[in-house]
């Protein structure tokens, strides 16, 4: 794999030296430096970097104007803000300028390295996710069931076809964010949900809402455990789960998610059947301002 070519843009010779040392020590190829808008334009045209680290404060201009000029030359060049300032307004502006990330000075070498590697990750990383995610989500479901109920469910009707779903009554949707975006859906009938909740609570649920809350937490454990296992295989994924959204009723239809990769299965348990559906997209997921 070729080294990432990096141009450092900063008005401080000290910061340039610090960044150059960090980047070189971590396997990147620092091809040059610039301290003004004119130098940025000249160096980008001359050196064709893959990525630019960009200070916000540049004499006579700023990092946002420099980024505009960089993207006029080559819109594929990645720009990462490296600045002593960080606030919500600056982060919003950086996103609008199509910058790829934001690191605050003083720079932590591990954070900067991880952020750049994550930004520059290519098709090989997504192919790695394709190979492991279905097996890992299945493993997570089996493990959580075994730990919570001392039972081993059976997986049937496993499929990699993206299709619309008709809910059995309760659907918990877990968003997944990180290098790639995705989601997991746990679907179950209310009757099965109440039976499973009774086992976990060691009493009958006091209300339908309590049973639904238990299902939300089970879905959270399934997806959280799976994402942790995937991240353990390769920390560049940086996957995390968003808070669950729980839908329930007699006529819930879940449309195709139009995901590039999906895995679905029915899960037979001693308490009734449930189903899971997991999927991911190649496109960039979360905009990572902080690792």
What can you tell me about this protein's structure?
- Pfam families: CheX, Response_reg.
- Keywords: Chemotaxis, Phosphoprotein.
- Residues 5-120 form the Response regulatory domain.
- The protein has 291 residues and is of the alpha/beta class.
- The protein has two domains: 5-120, 3-Layer(aba) Sandwich (Rossmann fold); 124-284, CheC-like (Chemotaxis protein chec), CATH 3.40.1550.10.
- 42% of the residues lie in helices and 29% in strands.
- Strand 4 (57-58) and strand 5 (61-62) form a beta hairpin.
- Helix 2 (37-47) runs parallel beside helix 3 (63-73), helix 6 (123-149) packs across helix 8 and helix 7 (190-201) packs across helix 8 (208-233).
- The longest helix has 27 residues, at 123-149.
Features:
single chain; 291 residues; alpha/beta; Rossmann fold; Chemotaxis protein chec; 2 domains; 7-stranded antiparallel β-sheet; 5-stranded parallel β-sheet
By CATH reckoning, the class of the largest domain would read Alpha Beta
Label the structural class.
alpha/beta
Please outline the major beta sheet.
7 strands, antiparallel
How far apart are the first and last residues' alpha carbons, in Å?
A: 23 Å
Number of strands: 16
Contiguous runs where pLDDT drops below 50 for at least 5 residues: none
User: What best-fitting shape do the alpha-carbon axes yield?
Assistant: elongated
User: Nearest-angstrom radius of gyration?
Assistant: 23 Å
Element-by-element helix/strand order:
EHEHEEEHEHEHHEEEEHHEEEEE
DSSP strand content: 25-35%
- Percent of residues in helices comes to 40-55%
Tally of domains: 2
Keywords: Chemotaxis, Phosphoprotein
Domain Response regulatory: 5-120
Protein name: Stage 0 sporulation protein A homolog
Organism: Clostridium oryzae
